[in-house]
Amino acid sequence: GRTVPALPDGLHPARQEPGVRPARALPYRPQVQATSVDDAGLTLQLASDGAAAVLHVYDRLRLDAVPRRYTVVPGAPLQDRWPLDAQGRYDLWLLGPNGFHRHYRGDGTLAPLHAHVERADGQMRLTLRNPSPSARKVQVQAGAYAGHMPTRELQLVAGAETVLAWDPAPTAGWYDLIVRSQGTEQRLAGRAEDGRPGTSDPAMGSEPLRFDHG
Q1: At 205, is the secondary structure helix, strand, or coil?
Q2: Where in the chain does DSSP place strands (E)?
Q3: Phi/psi zone of residue 190: left (φ > 0), alpha (ψ -120 to 50 degrees), beta?
Q4: Number of C-alpha atoms within 13 angstroms, CB side, residue 73?
Q5: Which of 32, 105, 204, 212 has a CA between 20 and 30 Å from the CA of residue 58?
Q6: How many Å is the Cα radius of gyration of the chain?
Q7: Which of 64, 60, 110 is CA-nearest to residue 85?
Q8: pLDDT tens digits, 126-174
């Protein structure tokens, strides 16, 4: 973390009021997938199943670079590649509408797991697939919503796929999951819409957000 400078007397940092508020249904349903990694870099596929969405990608190993911005429309997925740094690493932070967030971190030696979150048939579902030619150990844990997201340790053989499901009601469809596998890490967060009104993010304003810069 980093130290926040002291404010003059009588001034205080802005703080979100605790508690949830009603929220209208939104049409955004962006999808992002880390498809491959090699010596040339990490490749992401950006798509949208709902309204057009603007996605911003920040390279956290090159913070002096301008973030890449993409407008993704339904039926027209985009693909782009980000180079590894001098140590062969990648660390990308992707932001989109309605709290959509993806974070990919690792190196060029092992492809990230294919991970997809969706809301269907009254459930939230995390689909994981192992694209590697060998078995992978996988750890899934909750981010901001501990106790309401799945926590699992499992092993996926080459090419295998598994689905973890949970009840969206306690968090109104908001999700935050961290997936780790043998040196790769990705975080998937946002709200999975179902076309009905919901609530604001229940984790917003509960405590100061902390960002790991390690």
Answers
A1: coil
A2: 22-23, 30-38, 41-48, 53-59, 68-72, 78-82, 89-95, 101-107, 114-120, 123-129, 136-142, 152-156, 161-166, 174-181, 184-191, 198-199
A3: left
A4: 1
A5: 204
A6: 18
A7: 60
A8: 999 999 999 999 999 999 999 999 999 999 999 999 999 999 999 999 9
Tokens encoding 129 = 């697939």
- Give backbone dihedrals phi and psi of 171, rounded to 5 degrees, phi first: -115, 15
User: For residue 178, how many other CB atoms are within 10 A of its CB?
Assistant: 17
**Shortest CA distance to 29 belongs to which of 92, 109, 118?**
118
Residue 22 bridge partners (DSSP): 199
10: DSSP letter: T
Distance set, CA 147 to CA 80, 138, 179 (Å) = 35, 19, 16
Amino acid at 31: Q
Token digits for 109?
């030696």
Which residue(s) pair with 32 in the sheet? 46
Task: Tell the residue number behind the tokens 């999951």, with chain if given.
Answer: 177
